[in-house]
Amino acid sequence: MKLLSIAVAVLLAVWALIIGGVQEVEAQSYPDRPITLIGTQDPGAVADADCRAFAEELGKVLKTPIAVINKPGAGATLGTDFVVKSRKDGYTLLYATASGVVYTKAGNPEVVPYDPAKDLEPLGFHCYFPLAAFVLETSPYKTFNELIDYAKKNPGAVRVSIPGSGNIDHFNVEIVKSMTGAQFTVIPFKGGTAAMTALLGGHVDVNFAALPMAIPHVRAGKQRFLIASNKVREFQDVPTASEMGYKQDLLYPWFAIYGPAGIPEEVKKVLIPAIETVVKNPEHEAKLEKLGVTVEYRTPAEVRKLQESDYARARSLAIQLGLSK
Questions:
Q1: Which residue from 128, 146, 250, 280 could staple onto 254, CB 3.0 to 4.6 Å apart?
Q2: CATH of domain 32-128+253-320
């Protein structure tokens, strides 16, 4: 009986070594097949271009194809939730937006089915860009103050499009309403492209969305900016809220790469340096700067800290502005 117990123990030990060895070989060979990068933005949006540019460079560094799959909708939560529920093997990653990991959850904590702080693991920061309010060049509103004056005198008359409900753009509209006392009719669309199309077609009066999305139209003389969340080198005359005397500036989106919580350490040892290499590539940075995007590397720990601080602020704002209880 004693010999049998010893034999069983030896077999279990050998089996553990075999399994451990297989796992180690698998980790060392990562990636050995294509990786899927889930984007939560709609095709054609600025963030989609950023995501695809990043995927192309990451594929070169890892020497494996990176397939971008768009899963937009529900304030960036559909695609984010898909990654949360995916296999924890490093072959399904998330090109996360601040809306998906901060703002939609802050505004609708009872609706969003995941906890970004527990269910996702940051792997590196990629970029950010300003948000803005813009109108058609033919619009009667030449400045932000003219828009606000009219909206205050005519509550609900100004139609505002935003690329989704409960996201960062929605927060900005509510912040403007709170700061100025203006009232708008807010119309959420499925994504940035649809919201822009509504403005171009004259179905809305103002679009609160990504500033880079409007840059080609502004350069072509078809649109103009009224306010931006950050200063933009090319458009120095576009004011921020603080420059106009308001107590706070508008929020702005950022983008980072995440995986589902629990992916192997060996996989992270490959992914994290690869992401850093991509983001710090001067050619990649120059390419995105032409789109009005600022590329900046931050470590996973720094992304985690940013996510937590932004969520705390957004949750407080959501309660203060009446977006959530």
A1: 128
A2: 3.40.190.150
Q: Are residues 123 and 211 in contact, defined by beta-carbon separation less than 8 angstroms?
A: no
265-269 long-range contacts (CB < 8 A, ≥24 apart) are: 266/24, 266/27, 266/28, 266/30, 267/27, 267/30, 267/89, 267/90, 268/90, 268/121, 268/123
Contact 188, 165 (CB under 8 A): yes
Can you give the residue ranges of every domain in the chain? 1-30, 32-128+253-320, 131-244
Residue 92 φ then ψ, to 5°? -130, 110
* Parts of the chain with a pLDDT under 50: 1-4, 6-27
The model's pTM is 0.79
Domain 131-244 has CATH 2.40.30.10: no
pLDDT digits (tens, 9 = 90+) for 10-30: 444 444 444 444 444 444 699
